[in-house]
Amino acid sequence: MSEPAKRITDIGPPPYEKFLHPLIKKNYGKWLYHERPAPGVLCHISETGDKLYTVRAATPRLLSIQTIRMFADLADKYSGGYLRFTSRNNVEFLLDNPDNIEPLKKELLAAGFLVGGTNNSISNIVHTQGWIHCHSAATDASGIVKAVMDALHDHFTESKLPAKLRIALACCLNMCGAVHCSDIAILGVHRKPPKIKRDVLSKVCEIPTLISSCPTGAIRPATFEGKPSVEVIEEQCMYCANCYTVCPAMTLNDPDNDGLSIWVGGKVSNARSAPRFSKLAVPFLPNNPPRWPEVVDAVVNIVDVYARNARKFERMGEWIDRIGWPRFFELTGIEFTRYHIDDFKHAGTTFARSAHLKF
Amino acid sequence: MSEPAKRITDIGPPPYEKFLHPLIKKNYGKWLYHERPAPGVLCHISETGDKLYTVRAATPRLLSIQTIRMFADLADKYSGGYLRFTSRNNVEFLLDNPDNIEPLKKELLAAGFLVGGTNNSISNIVHTQGWIHCHSAATDASGIVKAVMDALHDHFTESKLPAKLRIALACCLNMCGAVHCSDIAILGVHRKPPKIKRDVLSKVCEIPTLISSCPTGAIRPATFEGKPSVEVIEEQCMYCANCYTVCPAMTLNDPDNDGLSIWVGGKVSNARSAPRFSKLAVPFLPNNPPRWPEVVDAVVNIVDVYARNARKFERMGEWIDRIGWPRFFELTGIEFTRYHIDDFKHAGTTFARSAHLKF
Amino acid sequence: MGDDTKSNTKLLDELEKGPWPSFVTEMKKAAETNPMAKDLLGQLELSYEERIGHWKHGGIVGVMGYGGGVIGRYSDVPEKFPNVAHFHTLRINHPSGWFYTSEALRKLCDIWERHGSGLTNMHGSTGDIIFLGTKTNELEPVFQELTQAGFDLGGSGSVLRTPSCCVGQARCEWACYDTMATCDSLTRAYQDEIHRPAFPYKFKIKCSGCANDCVAAIARADLSVIGTWKDDIQQDDAAVSEYAAAGLDIQKDVCDHCPTKCMQWDGKKLAINNRECVRCMHCINVMPKALKPGKEKGATLLIGAKAPIMQGALLSSVLIPFVPAAELLDTIKELVSRIWDFWSEYGNNRERVGELIQRIGMPAFLDAIGLDPVPEMVTAPRDNPYIFFQTKEDGQETK
Amino acid sequence: MGDDTKSNTKLLDELEKGPWPSFVTEMKKAAETNPMAKDLLGQLELSYEERIGHWKHGGIVGVMGYGGGVIGRYSDVPEKFPNVAHFHTLRINHPSGWFYTSEALRKLCDIWERHGSGLTNMHGSTGDIIFLGTKTNELEPVFQELTQAGFDLGGSGSVLRTPSCCVGQARCEWACYDTMATCDSLTRAYQDEIHRPAFPYKFKIKCSGCANDCVAAIARADLSVIGTWKDDIQQDDAAVSEYAAAGLDIQKDVCDHCPTKCMQWDGKKLAINNRECVRCMHCINVMPKALKPGKEKGATLLIGAKAPIMQGALLSSVLIPFVPAAELLDTIKELVSRIWDFWSEYGNNRERVGELIQRIGMPAFLDAIGLDPVPEMVTAPRDNPYIFFQTKEDGQETK
Ligand code: SRM
Ligand code: SRM
Ligand code: SRM
Ligand code: SRM
Ligand code: SF4
Ligand code: SF4
Ligand code: SF4
Ligand code: SF4
Ligand code: SF4
Ligand code: SF4
Ligand code: SF4
Ligand code: SF4
């Protein structure tokens, strides 16, 4: 296929150098240490003596061009036109003049953008598309994030937790955003096997790919009205929806049986303890828009219990390590069920293979 | 089938009560604490004020009736006729009179039975049959035990290690004696797929059982001279010999390719850390009777390095936990190979999934 | 749909309440002038009412010459919301570290105002700028305007996905290598791999400057590059004393949390047994003014992280314990080329490299890419005796 | 074979050297009067020369009415060693705790002198007395003399194997229940299960009086019974001071090794936060005079240990965290009857109960035996989202 002459391709992203504040360019790789003058404000000190101030504000990640332009205006006004976004979707203004900090904060707050998220706070919730854009979603993403952060916003604007607390949300088991290593993960789940659209299946799906997509081998070849099709052995299905990813005829979305699960104690950083997966806390809560009160309550409860009981610098998982899971369930009042006991591939490695017991 | 009238069955073992020293009967369940007056000697003090002295001596486990009678004579002479064996095949004489300790020790030593094995020593090696009685054996058992303990006997007669050190040996992967949780495990291994006795296979083996016996699915149905038989996909075979257990026609014993592997860091007790499996240290050493010098050297080296480096009360595995496996290989000079990296079922859980690294 | 957005979004309106910035407010801002945004709001309200999504299974759409960068999406209620009948998102490769000037942002906004919903994600969770929803016929125009403005598409499908990195040396004192330059160089080197699917499945690279791992590389990148150092922690005793004087409980807050307990504090002097330090960053995190990574800097390369489907989630695991910073870029390139070659040939369809390793075993994978086994790769050697011994032709043992 | 044993055992003679008691010496002692022992020595020397065993694959032999207790064994060089052409071992159920009187031992020796090789194992690694090798026609006579002497066979094959226990309250101050009585009662209660194969595979029970687990129950018993307590460690402060005065470094040797760091020593007083204690035994082990298990004693029941074949070795895992000592025997009996029922029906041939649990999943196993899930059963809840949700007939959720 020949392309029009002037069409440009494969240029990659703009070179990051041109977006760097002159103070950053000058001190690139020369930073000595940092201080945290206030929640949402960082001060990095360079070996040249220069100081860079960062003001961090929450965003809902889903931003209109109107808001982005507003951020651009604020940057022009206070930070020489330089700003960035963080790996958790906060916006950061990069200031060389500390006098600009307070006015900038004021304008951000006035516009509805909370300042905070630094140090031992709850930063923005990493999340995914939900009903806004994804075909796979067992729940919405942005709505739950908003409801949960409304309830927890003072943990964003203040830094009063024992350690960082990272919350993430994914709207299906594909787990975009890699919520699987979060202090608290909120995960959309299905609870019914796929309903097969038998009439279209053979037209829209490649059957061998479909069959091999099932982690538990629950999908078997079958015929439907003489045409090759599949059937699902329902007892073998754990509703992961991988079949749907490869074949639109395997539908799982279901208003009454879809909902959310809550996972705790994961972490990413290597600080102190090794990175680790989040573990199941609450197997199922209903999809209850617009404000998902059951989910909000469950998350707030876990945060509260953690905040009251963990020691300084103990992440959620480190705290649970110390007290043990039985105590976690006792303190949070969450019921321990058969669903909590692993029965997937490496299940045996999670069994309590010692006589170490607290009573 | 009718049985002769006087034939007695299902009586179970003799009631243990009649074998208990009167002092034990009197103080059963009333022991307060114990002291360790000397290696191989224990003193248990009862709440009644009574004291029971135990003298422990090594045995080769394989005992002639001549030696057992000699033990019986010693028991009559020194311990009121009462004695017992331990869970690691030592013999224990139970004395109420401390004056009998030294004469008993003297006689035991004179007869060639070392006294010791208590406290932080290397106790007797738990082991299995080997060439003495088992069809499965990839190596002998008793001979290696003798050679290793000859080299380590002063760790039996003295208690000078940081903690208990338990050695076990099994002559094949069936691991009778459960060597899999030992500080040091010596394990007989094959290294070649079974040689199939095709001529007799269909006569002596049940083919479906045989096929399903293979953990890796390496055995497939085949025919031989028109009769149902099997073939082994050699690349899938890891020489476990489970096929041989169910089918005599699958022979694995092989003088040149059989040998030994050494595993370290397992433990059983819950003291301090949880029980755990031993891990591969040396993948293969040759079968070199009568004294297996390569095996003896390897074990002695590991014991020496442990003894020099571990902290008080640190079992082998706890010491390695602290220093890390790279350091273990460095200190012992054992080569780390591809065989050390797990590639069985739960392999992934043993990968180093963090950036925690020592250099 | 009606004209008055407000009256039609009774449920969503609830999400304009409360202190946290509201995505509904964002949608409404855009909806004031943009019919796509307006219909998106309407369809979302319907989803909230019915507790179910209203998107059909995605179709493949894209721009000429590219195999990815666009996620096709179609409404299943186009009759109700015709402006989102097609509603494809574009993934735009962000600049390293997500740095912008106000000017660059305004350019992006202008393009998206002309050709799309006016809604974005800043950013997608892989790191791309997400232009959230437009019609099929707008894709090529957006693309052309983007490239004119100096931006290009990011990855989707079975490609190298847009690499990302932490802020690194631009603002962080702990970066043990130049994360932004590394990420940028890799992105430029692999334009073809990003834009034209040739892999069995997606491949992600993320670069963190130290073990704090601020881009969560170890949790979600097939190749995770994590900065570290080889020599001793740089220690400023005066600054340690300052922290102590300022009230930091060095024993409790620092030493007691050290995973290897290799720090000793006698009330006056902090002694670190660096040989036992695992570079976890904790002590440095707590006393940034007093402690710093060593001078011999570089990175650890780890392999295989991914989300749970199909065989359970994986964290990356150590492949090369230490690469000096100066050799990092070349080492990564050499390594990924070997990995990609092998994976492309032996990986199953939709099999991530981490899953391939699980399937064939790490030893076989190491053989395939020509790396020697080192004990740093494992938390412990195997505990099962199921060893596949290999004997070479000459009868000699393979190690 | 020749008359002079010595000249024929050049290799084995090497194993009479050195300080450790020699099994070769034992064999020679027996060989002096016993032709079976003599030929065993000869065959073993041959194995040493050729580096290979000389036993054929075992055949099934036994005594009337019993399905086990004898391990059949035949030489593959019977022409050279006719006295071990058959050489079957008997497994004899040892008395609880391996206690004997000299009289009982002599009786055993006399029987074995008359009917066997004169060689034994004291004991086999399951715990039985092993009578090492005799001819087929001697089996029934040995058996009859044994029962006359009050001994019976132990288990082999797909039966309940001879249960065993630590010395417990007979000589140990830490036994949290009567291990010997428990082991003895179970052995008597299940004579039929021990002697007549009715299971899919072997089943082992081992009883340790405390978490030191001196019979290695957790590593090798399908049902592991491990003593523990529920209330506080009994503490004698005066005795603690004695240990300290005698030079024990209580901080380093005791507190620092406590896995939960729940002990505090201020140089004078030891304070244990018993709520955090996991009953590991370490502190008690180090200061037996000062610390003791609590008064509310009982045991933890754990399930499923076994050796590696086929799916890798297993350690037992917690099934019932605490059973009071008084209820222990009944609870075990009730539990094993439910386990055996289910396993007998659903276990595959040669599938240990631990493997059955791995195959069907612990939740399903708990359902089957009617036990409620408790968090003590796991080190952590699942980390994969692959939950088999169950909905009851009435649409209500199963927990
Ligand atoms: C800006 C950002 C990097 C970026 O390129 O965007 C960043 C920046 C900094 N991180 Fe981070 N981290 C950032 C995401 C992360 C992540 C990734 C994530 O959250 O998804 C992690 C891993 C989280 C986890 O373990 O689950 C992360 C784990 C850390 C840690 C280790 C915390 C711990 O104790 O486990 C530190 C150390 C500390 O805070 O003392 C750290 C420290 C820092 C420092 C202090 C580094 C420095 O010297 O500048 C920066 C300011 C932190 C603050 O917020 O107080 N950063 N940091 C990211 C801000 C996200 C946000 O908006 O909230
Ligand atoms: C006699 C015997 C029980 C029996 O019924 O036969 C026994 C008896 C005692 N054991 Fe044991 N243990 C016996 C096998 C075991 C085993 C099983 C094994 O070795 O196969 C273990 C688990 C080993 C492991 O973890 O791999 C075992 C782990 C312990 C421990 C925990 C050690 C640790 O720190 O990990 C103690 C506590 C201690 O020694 O301080 C212990 C303590 C004791 C005490 C002190 C208990 C007491 O108060 O009487 C006894 C004397 C020990 C000594 O040797 O100094 N006993 N002990 C066993 C002697 C075997 C031998 O001949 O050497
Ligand atoms: C847009 C985004 C979520 C978001 O809102 O941020 C996203 C959205 C989708 N992801 Fe994702 N993934 C996104 C980041 C991730 C991440 C996080 C990351 O890259 O750091 C992960 C976890 C890490 C990983 O790769 O394992 C992730 C793991 C998946 C998976 C599971 C892959 C696996 O191997 O397990 C799928 C399923 C698939 O590939 O078929 C998936 C598939 C999808 C699809 C394409 C749905 C599908 O069934 O094909 C989603 C399209 C939604 C839509 O309509 O726009 N997405 N996806 C993220 C990409 C934005 C960007 O480019 O910046
Ligand atoms: C005699 C003894 C070894 C010893 O010298 O002490 C022994 C010997 C044999 N064991 Fe064992 N096992 C002996 C204790 C064990 C133990 C330890 C224990 O019971 O505490 C284990 C590990 C624990 C376990 O049960 O998992 C053990 C795990 C095995 C296995 C593997 C079972 C598994 O599920 O993985 C086999 C293979 C089999 O059953 O087919 C096995 C099979 C055998 C056979 C019958 C060989 C076979 O292929 O059928 C051996 C007969 C040898 C012979 O000629 O006398 N033996 N075997 C032990 C029994 C003596 C006794 O009754 O006191
Ligand atoms: S987590 Fe699932 S539903 Fe959500 S965006 Fe990713 S693929 Fe779509
Ligand atoms: S939802 Fe998952 S488990 Fe169920 S049939 Fe589809 S792929 Fe298989
Ligand atoms: S370990 Fe193997 S060879 Fe040794 S006695 Fe047991 S089954 Fe026989
Ligand atoms: S030795 Fe083991 S792996 Fe090899 S064929 Fe036999 S059962 Fe299979
Ligand atoms: S990963 Fe390390 S270097 Fe990068 S921003 Fe975070 S703390 Fe700084
Ligand atoms: S970096 Fe971590 S391991 Fe190293 S000294 Fe500091 S706290 Fe300890
Ligand atoms: S297990 Fe406990 S009770 Fe039994 S002998 Fe060992 S230390 Fe004593
Ligand atoms: S028994 Fe173990 S856990 Fe309990 S206080 Fe003593 S050392 Fe600590």
Compact description:
The complex is a heterotetramer, with 2 copies of chain A (359 residues) and 2 copies of chain C (399 residues). By secondary structure, chain A is of the alpha+beta class. Chain A has helices at residues 22-27, 65-78, 101-110, 142-157, 198-204, 207-212, 242-246, 293-309, 316-323, 325-332, and strands spanning 31-38, 41-46, 51-57, 62-64, 82-85, 91-95, 167-170, 184-189, 195-196, 219-224, 227-232, 250-251, 259-264, 279-286.
Give descriptors for this structure.
heterotetramer, A: 359 residues, alpha+beta, 5-stranded antiparallel β-sheet, 4-stranded mixed β-sheet, 27% helix, globular, C: 399 residues, 5-stranded mixed β-sheet, 4-stranded antiparallel β-sheet, 14 helices, disordered N terminus, binds siroheme, binds iron/sulfur cluster
Summarize the structure in words.
The complex is a heterotetramer, with two copies of chain A (359 residues) and two copies of chain C (399 residues). By secondary structure, chain A is an alpha+beta fold. Chain A is built from ten helices and 14 strands. Chain A has helices spanning 22-27, 65-78, 101-110, 142-157, 198-204, 207-212, 242-246, 293-309, 316-323, 325-332; strands at residues 31-38, 41-46, 51-57, 62-64, 82-85, 91-95, 167-170, 184-189, 195-196, 219-224, 227-232, 250-251, 259-264, 279-286. In chain A, the strands form four sheets. Chain A has a five-stranded antiparallel β-sheet with strand order 1-2-3-6-5. In chain A, strands 7-8-13-14 form a four-stranded mixed β-sheet, covered by helices on one side. Chain A has a two-stranded antiparallel ribbon with strand order 9-12. In chain A, strand 2 (41-46) and strand 3 (51-57) form a beta hairpin. In chain A, helix 4 (142-157) runs parallel beside helix 8 (293-309). The longest helix of chain A has 17 residues, at 293-309. Chain A is globular, with a radius of gyration of 24 Å. The model of chain A has no long low-confidence stretch (mean pLDDT 96). By secondary structure, chain C is an alpha+beta fold. In chain C, 32% of the residues lie in helices and 15% in strands. Chain C is built from 14 helices and 14 strands. Chain C has helices spanning 10-13, 23-31, 35-50, 102-115, 139-148, 179-189, 191-195, 217-220, 237-245, 250-254, 282-286, 328-346, 353-360, 362-369; strands at residues 70-71, 88-92, 99-101, 119-122, 129-134, 164-165, 205-208, 223-229, 234-235, 263-265, 270-272, 291-292, 297-303, 317-324. In chain C, the strands form four sheets. A five-stranded mixed β-sheet of chain C has the order 6-7-8-13-14. A four-stranded antiparallel β-sheet of chain C has the order 1-2-5-4. In chain C, strand 4 and strand 5 form a beta hairpin. The longest helix of chain C is centred in the last third of the chain and has 19 residues, at 328-346. Mean pLDDT of chain C is 95; it is low at 1-6. At the A-C interface, strand 1, strand 4, helix 2, strand 5 and helix 4 of A face helix 2, helix 3, strand 3, helix 4 and strand 4 of C. The complex binds siroheme (4 copies) and iron/sulfur cluster (8 copies). One iron/sulfur cluster binds at residues 193-194, 213-216, 218-219, 232, 237-243, 250 of chain B. The site of one iron/sulfur cluster has 17 residues of chain B, from helix 7.
